[in-house]
Amino acid sequence: MSLAPRAVIVHRTTEYEELLARHGTHGQAEFFLSSRGRSIREVAERHRRSVRALAAVSAAVPPQWRRARVERADLDRFLFAPEDVVVVAGQDGLVANTAKYLAGQPVVGIDTDPGRNAGVLVRHRPDETARLLRAAVARGAAADELTMVEAVADDTQRLVALNEIYLGRPDHQTSRYRLDLDGPGTPVATGPKGPAGVAAGGGSDGGDGSAEGAGGEVQASSGVLVGTGTGATGWLRSLWRERGGSRPLPAPAEARLLWFVREVWPSPATGTSLVEGDLTAGRRLRVTVESDRLVAFGDGMESDALELTWGQSVRVGVSDTSLRLLV
Predict the structure, then answer these.
(1) What is the CA radius of gyration of the chain?
(2) Counting beta carbons within 10 angstroms of the beta carbon of residue 182, is it exposed (0 to 12), middle (13 to 18) or buried (19 or more)?
(3) What is the pLDDT of the chain when averaged over all its residues?
(4) pLDDT score recorded for residue 106
(5) pLDDT for residue 206 is more than 70
(6) 231 near 194, Cβ under 8 Å?
(7) From residue 273, how far is each of 18, 43, 211, 248 by CA, in Å?
(8) How confident is the model at residue 327 (pLDDT cuts 50, 70, 90)?
């Protein structure tokens, strides 16, 4: 006999709950905020809306289904099963936080505080939950397959993310590494001239500009960001605008990534020729560590990062895993 579907409700601790955990009581939390010119009323009201929304989502789960509930901080310790239907109740970012732990399970995004969220990923209201759960287990359910980015280290550590992956120092100070590209010769965007005065992409290999034949380029920067079309509404977009938006941003379901090197600078030993580009399927950005410690983390979850040290390499590109988000 096959198992009944399991609804896994993912949520996040509210600001009000965090205040109570820190200060002990409502009164002490109220005094803390008032001493800083703020009122607890708005925070408490948002908490009540979130509680009501979670109650409505839970009540919509069919009685014959199994169910589970997991808080954001526990995602890295929760075991999702293939038959799960994942209901993310909260902000858009919570969907991204959850996506990295999934393997194709359908996801329902529920906005618990309409008007405060962009609604890019949490597209539905709590009263739509029952319909969406039925659709999730029906044949041919309408869903967007959102492209994800993955980083794979040479010691088999693997990380996937829905928005972006950052590689660099955890404190965002100077990262030292060698940057290269693997895979078929996809043209790469070019950047400013390096310390030797060679324009980016100015190689003799047909404009690839990857310096692969020379073993890549040694760089010192604030790190490397590789993002998806879903991430193009956030951190990736800010870098894209900073660089003048010279290339189109990928669509959320497009198997293409953009990468940028942050605040790279030249020196006698480091260059600035490889600073941005596209990654399509089969194309990988390779970073080889040339300092004591770098990390790679996805979607802002620094607590769940790949730890990299001298001589290690990590390759970043389009993931075979995508997020199946119901529409």
Answers:
(1) 22
(2) middle
(3) 88
(4) 96
(5) no
(6) no
(7) 45, 48, 9, 20
(8) very high
- Which residue has 């100015």 as its token pair? 202
- 12 DSSP assignment: -
Which amino acid is it at 177?
Y
> Looking up tokens 């089969």, which residue turns up?
282
Helices and strands, counts by H and E, the chain:
6, 16
Task: Give the C-alpha separation, 145 to 70, whole Å.
Answer: 23
CA distance linking residue 51 with residue 55, whole number of Å: 6
Task: Return the bridge partners of 86, or none.
Answer: 8, 107
Q: How would you label 150-164 residue by residue, b for 16+ Cβ within 10 Å and e otherwise? A: bbbbeeeeebbbbbb
Q: How deeply is 12 buried, as exposed, middle or buried, from its count of CB atoms within 10 A (0-12, 13-18, 19+)?
A: buried
Closest by alpha carbon to 162, among 216, 86, 223?
86
- Structure-token pair, residue 279: 């990654």
This prediction has a pTM of 0.83
Determine which helix (DSSP H) or strand (DSSP E) holds 326, and give its type and residue range. Answer: strand 313-326
Partners of 10 in beta bridges: 70, 88
Bridge partner list, 287: 179, 314
Token pair listed for 158: 């693997």
- Closest-CA residue to 261 (of 275, 247, 249): 275
Decide: 273 and 193 in contact? Cβ < 8 Å.
yes
The DSSP bridge pattern shows strands 66-71 and 6-11 to be parallel
> Is the distance from CB of 159 to CB of 100 less than 8 angstroms?
yes
Which DSSP helix (H) or strand (E) runs through 68?
Answer: strand 66-71
d(CA 93, CA 95): 5
Any residues with CB less than 8 A from the CB of 70 and at least 6 apart, and which?
8, 9, 10, 11, 78
Compute the distance between CA of residue 26 and CA of residue 6 in angstroms, rounded to an integer: 35
